[in-house]
Amino acid sequence: MTLRTLLPTVGVMAAVRATPANPLPGLSVAETDSADQRAIPPELGPDSLAVLSGPTFLYSNACGDVPTGSIGGLVHLDTRLISGWSLTVNGGELLVLRAETIDHYSAQYVLTNPELPGLPPNTLGVRRLRYVGDGFHERVELVSFRREPVRVELRLAVAADFADLFEVKSRVRDRSAEISRDHAADGSELCFSYQRGDFSAQTRVCSAKPADRIEGDDLIWELELSPREEWKVDLHVPLPPGMGVVEPVRGDIADVIHGRADDPLRRWLEDRAVLRSDSAALERTVRQSRNDLAALRLDLEVKGQRILLPGAGLPWFLAVFGRDTLITAYQTLVAGPALAKGTLLALARLQGETCDDFTDEEPGKILHEVRSGELTRSGEKPFGPYYGSADATQLWLILLSEYWRWTGDDETVRHLRDNAVAALRWIDEYGDRDGDGYVEYATRSPEGLGNQCWRDSPDGVCFADGRIPVLPLATCDLQGYTYDAKMRLSELFDGPLDNPTLARRLRDEANTLHERFNQDFWIEERGGYYAVALDGDKNRVDSKTSNMGHLLWSGIVPPERADAVVRQLMSPEMFSGWGVRTLSREERLYNALGYHLGTVWPHDNSIAALGLARYGYRAESNRISLAMIEAAEQFGHRLPEALSGFDRERLLFAVPFPTACSPQAWAAGTPLALIRAMLGVNPVDGRLVLDPDIPAELGRITAERVRAFGQQWELEAVGRSGHVRLQPS
């Protein structure tokens, strides 16, 4: 042994290994986007409101104002068209009496004035009505209750920064030098224009009643109101031409608010399955879910293809996501196959074709995310589309199978044959990076995600002692999905795809994966459970996570181990009373407010509920379902993206995760998946079969206009009895 082997070489440091928190350690901090995501809502207050229609939303405080520098504003297709929108009277802000959304696209704000120069408190009644549809519309109404005439200066301060949504949630670049103004001399319009390279955007604020003057970017009306005199002004911000809202509502603002305008959403809902129950809470939760899924519908053009799918969630994720959309489509198949078919076809058209390090694209891979803002269109961000998801490809295959089971649509399955074969090839040739039989991930992009499973935060996969594992990672859920996908595809190749040889090979591969997975991922200690992952050195990442529920859903858990898995999921360390936590509170990094470190995600729990029901643990599945329905009651019957993991018995009420998206697609799909688990409804040989276990708290459940095999069905169940019958066409 020489001295050189005993002493470190001067100036040579041990190589830093890639982890999800630092996936490309060779890059400097300046070369990566290290800005922290801002919390919602930091400046808008806890009573902030949003109006939403497809890829367009306006986020404001409870007064209806958007303070400059906040995360609020009018955003369309990932570009913020309005960054400031504040109404004042005689130089003072207004007071909120009450503000509520009416529909997902409309809201009403009832305000009055504090004591102001020339205005005693409560002199004015102020109402703001707004909606988004074919543009942003707002009506401001004033009425004076003073006994003598009163002079009022009404000022609307407007700002437009044209920030990309990625910047809104982190740090906004100053574009002021590139923004020009062409405001109308008669006070009827403000016009802001932005041009940088090939990207351009424009914001016009049109006033039906011209302002008396414009100061900078402020519209100002000088009013003299007689006692009980009413005054109003309508404002309109048109949206740029092109794709965007699916069938937007149009009409006079008051008619929209009061439901007198034609609403395409209502027509859309009339064609969907209807649920009735003795439980008003369940009915209202399902109704809210249907409305939210309609609100999130997008009409986009990506790579020359038109896509109509739900965006993932407001405000940060109003875009097409592979994983989110696929799971949402699976959850909602019980309500009809249209979303599933659209998802399969749209994502197949955008399936990866080549290897691209910047976008993590690979042949056969299903995309992760699509964006359309300036940073994407200029090539600074890789989201046009981005493929950094190691599970979307398997989930696409699972949805293809499930769609076929519910519809018997051989034609669509055959049409997608080449896509299915390409997806299988991706699993074996690109997903399995080192040939060990497991799907692993590690980004190649400087803008890529460190974690590419559903737990995609930098610390979403961790050891029990808090260490972050080295890449590449093979998470347990990926292996479960792969097992399920191959078993399901063997059924399709035995059937409409007519390749029995490939079907046998896929079953053999799935069975081999099942055997090896249960050797390599199982941990006997601490009551027995599955590791969340194998790291880049093939060490078991030994934290207890909710991913075990995904393993039950996929069927990769042997029956003899199901008891141990269920005990873990339903233990006080993992079940908060509102649902299963993402991470057991036994683990060092547990945090009731951590994104994947102890929060409770509705979609995650719906997958666990389906998995528990699959293995016959109906009481435990129902416990999750009831907890989710009770949680929804506390949020206006809308489940948020995630709940904080605080113990229910201690806090008594549910607490949302601080930056939870709401509405969010797979949270909106959760109640439908829970109903499927409780009804035990499954397609079998061209008919629907029920195996119900309805909790007594919910009484009777009836579902009408359920679509399967080209027909409509009615399902009814109470307790453990139920029936299915065909409905007349």
From TrEMBL:
Pfam families: GDE_N_bis, MGH1-like_GH. InterPro entries: 6-hairpin_glycosidase_sf, 6hp_glycosidase-like_sf, GDE_N_bis, MGH1-like_GH. It comes from Micromonospora saelicesensis. This is Glycogen debranching enzyme (Alpha-1,6-glucosidase). Gene3D superfamilies: 1.50.10.10. Residues 53-235 form the Putative glycogen debranching enzyme N-terminal domain. It comes from the Bacteria. Residues 400-634 form the Mannosylglycerate hydrolase MGH1-like glycoside hydrolase domain.
